[in-house]
Design a protein that fits this description.
Blueprint (H helix, E strand, L loop, with lengths): L1 H93 L19 H53 L2 H17 L1
């Protein structure tokens, strides 16, 4: 009889210990899940901010491309004008009499000497060089913008994947609370 009482007491203590351990384990699991829920909520907010950034980046890309297109058209026009000026200068140098035979829309319609054409060509070449440099800088800026946009898209995709797991957490949390409640009820 006394032996049975000792065994019963020991069994009760063991059950109490197991319940305590189980409660601690489930409490830790619930806490971990709650922290995960909070982390994913923050990531969801980041994702929304990231989507806003992507929209702005795409808009900026379009604006830069439009500016580059306009600049390229302007540059092409400058090249054509430069070529016409060179042709006119070469023609004026090859003829003994320059006078009214040499005309160009670059001037007011009156005749000009080869030296005047050469001066104008030098100015156009300088302007052309400046525009090429500016176009190069703009293209570099566009490439950087595209790189940033690509990185943002990758981050956006990663956050969307994590957001999918966020949808499963409430069910996991409810299951953990149910297990805890059952353990406490025993």
């Amino acid at each position: 009889s006394k032996k049975l009482e000792i065994e019963l007491s020991s069994a009760k203590r063991e059950i109490k210990t197991l319940r305590s351990r189980n409660n601690e384990k489930e409490s830790a699991r619930i806490k971990s899940l709650q922290e995960e829920v909070q982390r994913l909520k923050q990531q969801k907010e980041m994702l929304e901010d990231q989507n806003g950034f992507l929209t702005n980046a795409e808009k900026r890309d379009k604006e830069i491309i439009a500016k580059l297109k306009a600049r390229t058209e302007s540059l092409t026009s400058q090249v054509e004008t430069l070529q016409k000026s060179r042709e006119a200068a070469e023609a004026s140098q090859s003829r003994p009499s320059r006078g009214s035979d040499v005309t160009s829309s670059l001037f007011s319609g009156s005749s000009h000497t080869a030296e005047e054409y050469q001066q104008h060509i030098l100015l156009l070449e300088k302007r052309l060089s400046e525009m090429v440099q500016q176009l190069s800088r703009q293209q570099q800026a566009l490439e950087e913008c595209k790189r940033e946009t690509a990185e943002a898209r990758e981050e956006n995709e990663r956050l969307q994947d994590e957001q999918e797991s966020f949808k499963l957490l409430p069910a996991l949390l409810r299951e953990a609370e149910r297990v805890r409640d059952e353990a406490l009820a025993k």
